[in-house]
Write a structure and sequence with these properties.
By secondary structure, this protein is mainly β. It folds into 2 domains: about 140 residues, no CATH class; about 110 residues, Beta Barrel (Cyclophilin), CATH 2.40.100. Helix content is about 5%, strand content about 30%. It is built from 3 helices and 19 strands. A hairpin with a 7-residue loop joins strand 12 and strand 13. It starts with a strand and ends with a strand.
């Protein structure tokens, strides 16, 4: 068991999400930065889809009742004891404390054997939009661990690389024709607002001007969509986004850049570039 001594601003259990239920209105959910969770799992010999912990802005403390191997990846922070991006042995009774990230938002903790809370619709992920999966963690929670079957093969690995002003690649559409132009997306930086969460990154900057008035019937939404509400300011959909929406989607992030969007923090500036453009 792991005991949560302190949860920090937000700590949740996450794996790679609930595939195949969007037609029922169930979000995909899962880790907002999937590559970081996958790396943490590989470092301790787990399958990449094993459940771990997602710490938002750090601040957590975890007590390990038995000796364990852990790996911590994603947004860089101090941890005592241990080192990020490497497998670390934790003796029985140890409390591991996590500081605040110096960059990025989300840090991942994988434990050899995986976190084995009950699965809901095939996933152990906490979904903050629908309420599926375990509740966000709080002090006193105890988390069961699974059986360790894999082999630890890596001593250290490159992890998340902070970016001061990321440039995210986008593909226009499917509703780019609803706007006069997408030029503002590439012409200036947008600032991430404090209203951002696991559902979406809300941006402030030059608005996109609508060409088509009225609204769409609700249609399917995918992770990485840039949905544009009436104020013209794009929202980047993340892991807990709704499965349908009536506001037009002007563009969609290239898949490889979705994890980078998941590490954007309030006050940070971000730019966009049409894939294939200069």
């Amino acid at each position: 068991m792991i005991e949560v001594v302190r949860s920090g601003p937000l700590a949740t259990v996450q794996d790679l999400g609930r595939a195949g239920y969007a037609h029922l209105g169930v979000p995909f959910s899962g880790a907002a930065d999937r590559p970081s969770l996958c790396l943490a799992n590989r470092l301790v010999g787990n399958a990449e889809d094993a459940a771990g912990l997602e710490l938002t802005f750090g601040g957590a403390a975890l007590r390990f009742e038995a000796a364990a191997w852990i790996a911590v990846t994603g947004a860089p922070l101090t941890m005592r004891p241990g080192t990020m991006n490497a497998p670390c042995h934790v003796p029985a009774g140890t409390v591991v404390e996590f500081g605040t990230p110096s960059a990025g938002v989300r840090t991942y903790v994988a434990v050899r054997g995986g976190v084995e809370v009950p699965a809901v619709l095939g996933s152990r992920s906490t979904d903050l939009l629908s309420g599926l999966g375990p509740a966000p963690l709080s002090a006193g929670d105890r988390l069961p661990l699974g059986r360790a079957d894999g082999v630890i093969l890596v001593d250290v690995a490159p992890g998340f690389e902070p970016e001061e002003e990321p440039v995210l690649r986008i593909v226009a559409g499917p509703r780019d024709d609803w706007f006069e132009t997408l030029a503002p997306l590439g012409a200036a930086a947008y600032e991430v607002t404090a209203r951002s969460n696991r559902a979406g990154v809300r941006l402030d900057g030059p608005p996109l001007v609508r060409r088509v008035r009225g609204e769409l019937p609700s249609e399917g939404m995918v992770t990485g969509s840039l949905q544009v509400p009436p104020n013209g300011l794009p929202i980047i959909f993340l892991a807990d986004h709704p499965t349908t929406g009536g506001y037009p989607v002007a563009a969609v992030l290239v898949t490889a850049d979705i994890a980078r969007a998941g590490q954007l923090r309030p006050g940070q500036r971000v730019r966009f570039r049409l894939a294939g453009g200069s």
